[in-house]
Amino acid sequence: MKNTKIIITIGPACFSEEKLGALLDAGVNCIRINFSHTKTEDIKSVVSSIRGVSEKKHKEVAILGDISGPKLRVDGVPPEGIQLKSNSTIRIARNSGKALPFFTLPEIFDYVDCGERIFFDDRKIEGEIIEKASDTITVRIKNPSTLLPKKGLNLPDSDLGLSVLSEKDLRDIEAALLTDIDYFAVSFVRNAEDVLGLKRIIHSQKKIIPIISKIERKDAVRNIEEIIDASDGVMVARGDLGVEMDLDSVPSIQKDIIKCANKKGKLVIVATQIMESMINNPSPTRAEVSDIANAIYDGADVLMLSGETSVGKYPVETVNWLSKISLTTENSLKKNSGNIIRDTVENRVFFSANAIAHSAYYTAIDTKASAIICITNSGATSLLISKYRPEMPIFALSNNKSTIRKVELYRGVTGYLIDFEKSEIDYESLIRFIMKKHNFKMNDTIVLTQGFPPGIAGTTNSIAVFKVGQTLKKKSKEIKEFTSEKITLYLDKEKCLTCGICEELCPVNIFNVELKYMRINRKNLNNCLGDMICVKHCPVKALKITKKGEKD
Questions:
Q1: Backbone torsions φ then ψ of 487, nearest 5 degrees
Q2: Is 171 labeled as catalytic in the residue annotation?
C-alpha cells in the first residue's frame, strides 16, 4: 500500500461512473474540481456524482474545489490567431471595442509599465512592454510564434494588486459551501491576508474547510512562511510558477517549499506536468518517472494530475503508473534510510497534539511497533505524525465522516469510520476492527494516541502501547494462584498495573512484564528467596506470597 497520496482532476476523460470507479480502484485519494472549467450551477451535481461513485465503491475520497482566481488572459484574437515575428510589435487594449486584442481583466492595465516583461501561453511567447498610452500598450515580441485566442498571460515583473477572488470565485465558493466539499485550493495567493480573507468568507457561513494555497507567484515565494502558517497546506503549482520565476530556479524553490511545509506540519502537494506525456501516450517518460521519485524523496505528501486525467487518453493507466512509481520509490526510501532521526515538527496551532505526535513517533521506533493508531476528531494528530515519515502505517479512527475523507490526503494515513460515544471508547472492539482490516500478528506492538474526553477536537493528550492479542484477553476478576514446592504466589490480575516494579526487584526472574500483560515464570518459583520485597513494594497490593506450611 503506497503512502504518497494522489489527486486527479475530473474532466470529460473520466467523468463517467465506470471511469471514476476504476480510478478509485487504481489508488486515487482525492478528486479535484477545477472551477475554471466548471459552471457555478454545476458544482453541486459534480460533487454529488463523485460521492455516488465513492459510496458504491465503499471507498472514501476527498474532494478539492480549486478556485480559479484572477487568471489573466488576452481576448479579441481571431480564431486563426495572430502570426508574430521576432522583434515585431503588437498592441493590446485595456478594453474591447478597438479592434485590438484586449485584457480580459481591464484593471491589470493599471499595474503594468514600460520595460516589464509579458509572457503569453505559458511562456511560449515572450515579449517586453515598450510603450504605454492611456488605453493601449505596445509589446515587442522576442520570438517568432502564433498568438491564439484566449491564451493566458503572465506579468512576472509587475506588482499586481488584484484580489485573489473574482466575482465568479465568490459565487463558486457559495455554491461549494452548500455541498460537503472537503478542501479549497486558492489560486495566485500573494500573502497570508489572501488566505485569511477566504477563511473569513468560509467562517461567515459557519463552515470550516481546509485551505490549500497554490504557490504560483514571485511574491508568494517571497512570503512563503506566512502563507504556510495561514494555510492548511500548500501546492507547488509549477505551471505558473515556472513562468513567473526563472525556470531554472523552480526545482530549488520546490525543495524549499516542501521542506518548510513539512517543518510546520502542513500538507504539501506537487502539481503540473507530473505525467504530461501520458495525455497522449500509454506510459510515462523516464524524465517524468525521475521527477515523481524526486518529489517523493523531497517529502511531498501528495502528487496531483491535471490534464492527464481530465482530458487525457489514458487516465486509469496514468494513476496505475503513478501508484507503481510511488510504491517503488517509498520502498527504496525505506531500504536506504529506515527510521532516522527527523527534524522536530513545529506546529504553532496544534502544539499539544504536536508533542504527542513527536512522542508517538519515537515510541513506535523504540518499541518496533507495527502500526500507530490515532483516535481523532479533527485528524490533526495523524497529519503531524505522518510528517515524521514513520515506516509503520498510521490509522486514523474517527466518528466524524468528514475527518475520514480529509485524512485521505495525509501521507501514509488510512482513515476508518468508527462509532463510539464521546464519553467512552470500546477498545476491545476497536482492536478487533483493525485486526480484521489488516493482517497483524499476535503480539505485534501497537502505539495508540487519544484524547480525554474522547471525541472532542484538540484533546489528544495521551499515548498507550500494547500488544495485539494481549489487550483482547479479559482481565480475570479472580485471584490467580501459582504453586511450587516451596511457595504459593497469589496474583490479583484485576489490581495489577503491569508497572514492572516486581520484575525489576526480583533477582530470580519470577516475573515477566511485557507492556500490558503479566506472566509468571513457573519454573523459577522454587528459586524464590522469600524476602517479600516484591510484595512490600507492589503499589496496588496485587501480590501475596505464602511459604509451604504457613497458613494463608
A1: -140, 165
A2: no
CA pair distance 244, 215, nearest whole angstrom = 11
The total of other beta-carbon atoms located within 10 Å of residue 299's CB is 18
- Taking 60 as the threshold, does the pLDDT of residue 243 lie above it? yes
Which segment of 4-8, 72-76, 171-175, 295-299 scores lowest on mean pLDDT? 72-76
Q: Is residue 214 annotated as a catalytic residue, yes or no?
A: yes
Catalytic residue among 4, 9, 38, 272: 272
CB count, 10 Å around CB of 87? Answer: 10
Q: Which fold has domain 479-547?
A: Alpha-Beta Plaits (3.30.70)
CA 16 to chain centre: 26
Mean pLDDT of 275-296: 97
pLDDT at 552: 53
Q: Is 89 marked active-site?
A: no
Closest CA to 416 of 387, 442, 393: 393
Q: What is the DSSP string of 447-477?
A: EEEEESSTTSTT-EEEEEEEETTTTTSPPPS
CATH number at 351-467: 3.40.1380.20
Which pLDDT band holds residue 451 (cuts at 50, 70, 90)?
Answer: confident
pLDDT tens-digit profile of 88-104?
Answer: 999 999 988 788 999 88
Distance CA 230, CA 228 (A): 5
Could you read off the pLDDT of 394-450 as tens digits, one per residue?
A: 999 988 999 999 999 999 999 999 876 654 566 667 777 877 788 888 778 889 998
Catalytic-labelled residue, pool 73, 124, 218, 486: 73
Sign of the CA dihedral running 466, 470, 471, 475? negative
Cell of 265: 506540519
Per-residue CA distances from 57 to 51, 268, 314 (Å)? 10, 27, 21
Whether cis (ω within 30° of 0) applies to the bond prior to 149 is: no
Average pLDDT across the chain, whole number: 89
How close are the terminal C-alpha atoms of the chain, in Å?
57
* CATH assignment of 74-154, among 2.102.10.10, 2.40.33.10, 2.60.40.3140, 2.60.120.10: 2.40.33.10
Fold of 5-69+163-334: TIM Barrel (3.20.20)
Active-site residue, selected from the candidate residues 2, 32, 238, 266: 32
Q: Is 272 a catalytic residue?
A: yes
Q: Which of 214, 264, 389, 467 is catalytic?
A: 214
CA distance 412 to 393: 6
| Rg of the Cα atoms in the chain | 30
